[in-house]
């Protein structure tokens, strides 16, 4: 029997695979139940697979097992509870249990930026793969999902060879993920593509079986899920190339914002106009305080570091510029604050002492509680460092923000944050902020000054309500 990928006749047929657990469908394990692993584990249980989530963090595992998602992601709590109740989904901190259970092990641990440079820290990958390998007693597939420097899959293969009996025939494959926070459930259940890096028909067949639920769902909805079957290096590179492209697109429009600022143009109209060209497209062309989060900033740095190691540093030198443009947008908010508050800037930046500033937004983007490398929180900290008394509010990110920047003041509502403020900075485009009534907020503040760090407010409406408005790369509206 052969198993073709549905809708992909060009893909060669695959060898029959029989999960070594004896189950009809491969049993899946996700190692590392952070944002990536927990979302995948829950969604694949929803697709009907028997799933085990593993993490070394006992508190995290206890939370998940009790039906609580440890982060904010729309729709995930309900799916977690349904699938725990259905008995398809379990969580563990035991390597023995995970090794016994699964036919396919997805490695989903974090790969943060190294403390001593721009490269990725692979220590969690090494620990999880080594410990898993030591406990394996039958033929399984280990699939990397974490974002890694190209060459990691080959290295993992060597680790596995070192720690397992070659007779077992354990194999490695790579399948990057493209989850966007806030849309992660949809991105797993209905991905816009699946990429697999494989070395054998068996690995390919096993990965097909592990994704059959995704293809079946697509078929019932009369959709196709494009599939790219490729080698290890390409599969690893796809992920960082995609993130590098997205980061470049954002920095491109932010560079245009810089030019608009000196030329008197409006970057929001410019973006709209160029975005009508389908070759350019209008998505990821939102100028503002730039990109943040746990992925784009660290991924473009790790990509440069790896290219340098491989002797192709020059090819990615532009990513350094992409990073610099992104950082400059954060400084721009400080500059605008000094201008609006009529404060002088010295060589160390503006002196904002004695001013009260409201910062609306702490998460790196709306519909997320993630504050990793969040432009909003970085700007809030910089304003405080310049002497301002900063009061922050975010609909979801408060708890994480408090841990990351304990010295700032946190308020429990938008109204409390803006009360008495001489300047309001909107730095994450939550719907609550976008739709805020400038008239009502105007009653609470000490002075009606607003910096729209995401160009998400109706500039004219705010100006008409008496606010002195500054956007990013757009002129102040003439009232
Ligand atoms: C990003 C990628 O979009 C995902 O495809 C990828 O899987 C993920 O990283 C990852 O590597 O795991 P995410 O970090 O959730 O996803 O966030 P994005 O939606 O890409 O936004 C990144 C940052 O760019 C945010 O701070 C956002 O505010 C900013 N952004 C986005 C802009 O400043 N302008 C835009 O036009 C779009």
UniProtKB/TrEMBL annotation:
Q: Show the taxonomic lineage.
A: Bacteria, Bacillati, Actinomycetota, Actinomycetes, Micromonosporales
Which parts of the sequence bind NAD(+)?
Answer: 55, 60, 111, 147, 181, 298, 372
Q: Where is the active site?
A: 295 (nucleophile)
GO:BP terms for this protein?
Answer: polysaccharide biosynthetic process
Listed A to Z, the keywords are: NAD, Oxidoreductase
NCBIfam families associated with the record: NDP-sugDHase
Q: Name one GO molecular function term.
A: UDP-glucose 6-dehydrogenase activity
Quote the pathway field.
Nucleotide-sugar biosynthesis; UDP-alpha-D-glucuronate biosynthesis; UDP-alpha-D-glucuronate from UDP-alpha-D-glucose: step 1/1
Q: What is this protein called?
A: UDP-glucose 6-dehydrogenase
Which InterPro entries does the protein's record reference?
Answer: 6-PGluconate_DH-like_C_sf (IPR008927), NAD(P)-bd_dom_sf (IPR036291), UDP-Glc/GDP-Man (IPR017476), UDP-Glc/GDP-Man_DH_C (IPR014027), UDP-Glc/GDP-Man_DH_C_sf (IPR036220), UDP-Glc/GDP-Man_DH_dimer (IPR014026), UDP-Glc/GDP-Man_DH_N (IPR001732), UDPglc_DH_bac (IPR028357)
| Residue positions binding substrate | 178-181, 239, 284-288, 292, 365
Can you state which reaction this protein catalyses?
UDP-alpha-D-glucose + 2 NAD(+) + H2O = UDP-alpha-D-glucuronate + 2 NADH + 3 H(+)
Q: Which SMART domains match?
A: UDPG_MGDP_dh_C
Q: What is its EC number?
A: 1.1.1.22
Q: Does the keyword NAD apply?
A: yes
First-level EC class: oxidoreductase
């Amino acid at each position: 029997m052969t198993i073709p990928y549905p809708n992909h006749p060009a893909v060669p047929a695959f060898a029959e695979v029989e999960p070594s657990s004896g189950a009809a469908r491969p049993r899946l394990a996700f190692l590392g139940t952070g944002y990536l692993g927990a979302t995948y584990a829950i969604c694949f249980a929803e697709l009907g697979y028997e799933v085990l989530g593993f993490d070394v963090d006992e508190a995290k595992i206890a939370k998940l097992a009790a039906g609580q998602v440890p982060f904010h992601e729309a729709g995930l709590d309900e799916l977690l509870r349904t699938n725990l109740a259905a008995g398809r989904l379990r969580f563990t901190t035991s390597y023995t249990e995970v090794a016994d259970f699964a036919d396919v092990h997805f490695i989903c641990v974090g790969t943060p930026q190294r403390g001593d440079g721009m490269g990725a820290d692979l220590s969690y990958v090494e620990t999880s793969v080594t410990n898993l390998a030591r406990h394996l007693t039958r033929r399984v597939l280990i699939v990397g999902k974490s974002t890694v420097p190209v060459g990691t899959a080959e290295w993992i293969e060597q680790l596995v060879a070192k720690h397992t009996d070659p007779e077992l025939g354990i194999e490695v494959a790579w399948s990057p993920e493209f989850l966007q926070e806030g849309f992660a459930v949809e991105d797993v259940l209905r991905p816009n593509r699946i990429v697999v890096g494989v070395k054998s028909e068996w690995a390919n067949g096993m990965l097909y079986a592990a994704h059959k639920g995704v293809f079946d769902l697509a078929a019932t909805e009369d959709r196709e899920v494009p599939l790219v079957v490729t080698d290890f290096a390409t599969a690893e590179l796809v992920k960082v190339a995609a993130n590098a492209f997205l980061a470049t697109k954002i920095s491109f429009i932010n560079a245009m914002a810089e030019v608009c600022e000196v030329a008197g143009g409006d970057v929001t109209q410019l973006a709209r106009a160029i975005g009508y060209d389908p070759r350019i497209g209008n998505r990821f062309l939102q100028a503002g305080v730039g990109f943040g989060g746990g992925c784009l900033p660290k991924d473009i740095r790790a990509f440069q570091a790896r290219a340098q190691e491989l002797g192709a540093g020059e090819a990615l030198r532009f990513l350094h510029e992409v990073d610099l443009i992104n950082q400059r947008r954060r400084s721009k908010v400080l500059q605008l604050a000094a201008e609006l508050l009529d404060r002088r800037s010295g060589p160390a930046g503006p002196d904002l002492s004695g001013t009260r500033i409201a910062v609306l937004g702490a998460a790196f983007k709306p519909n997320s509680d993630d504050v990793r490398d969040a432009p909003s929180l970085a700007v809030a900290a910089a304003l405080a460092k310049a002497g301002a008394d900063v009061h922050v509010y975010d609909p979801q990110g408060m708890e994480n923000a408090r841990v990351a920047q304990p010295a700032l003041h946190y308020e429990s509502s938008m109204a409390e944050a803006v009360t008495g403020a001489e300047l309001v900075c909107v730095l994450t485009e939550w719907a609550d902020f976008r739709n805020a009534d400038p008239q009502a907020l105007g009653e609470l503040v000490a002075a009606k000054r607003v910096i729209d760090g995401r160009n998400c407010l109706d500039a004219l409406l705010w100006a008409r309500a008496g606010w002195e408005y500054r956007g990013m790369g757009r002129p102040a509206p003439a009232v």
